[in-house]
Amino acid sequence: MAEIAICLAIIGIALVAIIGVLPRGMSVQRRNREETVINQDATVLMESIRNGVRSGADLTNYVFAITNFQTVWSATGVPGVTAVYGYGYTGSRLNGTSSQFALNTNANIIGLLSTPEYLNLNNNLPIQSGGGISNHILAYVRSLSGPAVEKPPQDNQILIGDSFSYRIYCVNASPAQDTNSGTHNFGQHLAANLHEVSLTFTWPLLPNGTVPPNRVLPLTQRLSVPGIIWQTNVLGQPLYFYQYQTFP
What we know:
Layout: H1 2-50, E1 63-73, E2 79-87, E3 92-94, E4 97-99, H2 106-113, E5 118-119, E6 132-142, H3 157-162, E7 165-173, H4 184-193, E8 194-202, E9 219-234, E10 237-244
Antiparallel strand pairs: 1-2, 1-6, 2-3, 3-4, 5-6, 6-7, 7-8, 8-9, 9-10
């Protein structure tokens, strides 16, 4: 009996250790799976932005909302009121006013994700100096990769709502200019012809549109795009597209 009791005690200690390790192992496995999905999706989104994709509508199955927190800045660097622009499948709200512009084409989605971080007030082109507009773009996306059961034409709203989703902070910035008289012209030319795209992913996205704090560290993907930015308008909404390897 004593030997049996000792064996049971040893087995109990071992089981406690194994049970303690299992949740951590499952957490690491889940994070690795999520990071794999994020990296695969980032490649698709980066290429779409760099190439200024305007055809098709496949991204409308995944990018279901975009928000832009826009602030006007004076020439002396004083911020004004921040306006919130919200875009969805069926329409948008611009400064509280409804608009017909919707995320119903690849062009509308990529055109918003490529919005420069800073714009001039007078021509909606990337800012060179003085005051302007700052854009804080957030995209809400259901994973492009992952289980096939979650993909279109799946119309089960419960399953769609439970699918893996994430939030992207999109930054389209030009290189900082050197205002020194000897290099200022070069800096202006560089800023007009080279841009850095930065996509920062945070996940998982909860049903209320937030991401749990300290859940996982953000994952950032960066890409340098040589070329100019072409600006157009759809239903009064400015859209921006890279002209890859096209220079003025």
